[in-house]
Amino acid sequence: MSKAYERIANELRQAIRTSELRPGDRLPSETKLAEQYRRSVPTVRDALRLLRDEGLIEKQHGRGNFVRRSRTTVLRTNTRHQWEKDRAREPEALRQQTGATEHDTGLGIDDLVFHASYREIKAEKEIADAFGVPEGTALVERTYRTRYSAESAPFNLVTSYLVRDRVAANADLLDETKEPWPGGTQNQLRTVGIELDRIEERVTARPPTPEEAEELELPPGTSVLLLRKVSFDTEGSPVEISDVTLPGDRTEMHFTTPLERW
Q1: Average pLDDT over the chain, rounded to an integer
Q2: Model pLDDT, residue 211
Q3: Is this prediction's pTM over 0.85?
Q4: Considering only CA atoms, which of 108, 232, 83, 215 is closest in space to residue 163?
């Protein structure tokens, strides 16, 4: 037999699913819900906690509980890399019209808010080994955040690394004010004579850190996907490494592998 707080949660859940309560609607106060269901306030709080854990509602400090608005879903496919490579050679006017985020979300460039920051760092052992360079090698660390203008959380958390000496021939590649760069990283690398041959991606999952959960606005219990992307040039050397943290509640990863026929 279900407990009292579960029955309250079931009724509220049904109201949300049938659109009786719509995204953005504020729920009655805990006191009013307690009166409505003839239960104690702690019982109501248990019901609301259950709905928050499911990602159906969110608590806004000082305002109350609201039906959570659905976040924009990101569909990330492996075909995006060839799309980016083809786009890297297009005229700048065409490259400025769209980007990888628009490709993955279906949004327009005017729908997005973009932020980038650069800094020079020394490669620690793990990233140095991944690049095949000595520890302490100068890297350009680039941090990216992109969000839908109607939402407050970014689509993902991106940190990208380049070996500074490999891209320093074009000073613009060391300047964050040149972002967003039309044509993305593949066009940036093209300006210094680097063509990509392949991209390797590894995906794992884990619970988010408190900082990740806060920045991505994750419902309790939501995992994050960790994507390590390594881009190799035509000589087989890694030229760019990206670590991408993706929210598990609104990211779909789709892989298509063409097979040779017998």
Answers
A1: 94
A2: 97
A3: no
A4: 232
